[in-house]
Write a structure and sequence with these properties.
The protein is mainly alpha-helical. The protein has 13 helices and 2 strands; from the N terminus they run αααααααααααββαα. A hairpin with a 2-residue loop joins strand 1 and strand 2.
Length: 237
């Protein structure tokens, strides 16, 4: 909880206060460190876990691979993935493959990431995210079409592919995907955010224009943010 709220120090203190640490507590702390880009600390904690006599499970390696991905530690991630079966006799799942695709994609190894992704939807989603970062429009289009053929009723491929077009400034292509989504009757689930000001909690749902229409200042601010998003190649599909 502390880590997800941005308070990593309190998360570490809570972990240190645990008298008898088990696999669950170690896994949780590995995820927390990885989430905050503390890859080296996450790996050291993993070593501490092994020295304590505990055996890692599949969740341990998801946390470790995520930590490597967020810290750009490609070779270490490869070694950890291989050690799952060779050292710990653990089989990998689709989530581990998705972590490897994310690890390789973030680091720019897109061709290798694509080989890993194959037809696994969750892995393809990670690959499309990497294509957006590295401006690989052609690969994104190919992967997106592959996702549509595997799961034609899934809106995710449209959204992620549209993000790639927006990031590269191809707004017309992004608009075509919007229209295609509408024609297929697909909608992106609206996101919801909360903010607490003066002990009052207010929620905002994407696409809800009621609050905007009755507040001129808020409307102007949102329009300004929309223009900035366009300038930086961001998409709000």
């Amino acid at each position: 909880m502390y880590a997800k709220c941005g308070d990593l120090d309190s998360s570490i203190m809570a972990f240190d206060d645990i008298y008898k640490k088990d696999v669950v507590s170690f896994n949780t702390m590995v995820f927390a460190l990885g989430l905050h880009g503390r890859g080296n600390q996450a790996l050291q904690l993993y070593e501490d876990m092994l020295e304590s006599g505990l055996k890692p499970d599949k969740l341990t390696f998801i946390g470790l691979l995520m930590s490597c991905s967020h810290s750009g530690m490609v070779e270490k991630g490869r070694m950890l993935f291989d050690s799952m079966s060779s050292v710990h006799s653990l089989s990998y799942d689709v989530d581990h493959v998705a972590c490897m695709v994310d690890l390789l994609g973030r680091a720019g190894y897109l061709s290798e990431a694509r080989d890993w992704a194959s037809n696994m939807i969750s892995s393809c989603e990670a690959l499309l995210g990497a294509c957006s970062v590295h401006g690989e429009v052609a690969m994104a289009a190919s992967v997106g079409e592959g996702m549509k053929s595997v799961q034609p009723g899934n809106e995710t491929s449209y959204v992620l592919q549209s993000n790639v077009y927006c990031a590269s400034g191809q707004w017309e292509q992004a608009e075509l995907l919007r229209k295609a989504m509408a024609e297929e009757g697909l909608k992106k689930p609206p996101g919801c955010s909360w903010i607490e000001v003066g002990n009052k909690l207010t929620s905002f749902v994407a696409g809800n224009c009621q609050a905007v229409s009755c507040n001129g200042e808020l409307r102007e601010t949102l329009y300004s943010l929309e223009n900035e998003m366009r300038n930086f190649g961001r998409c709000w599909l």
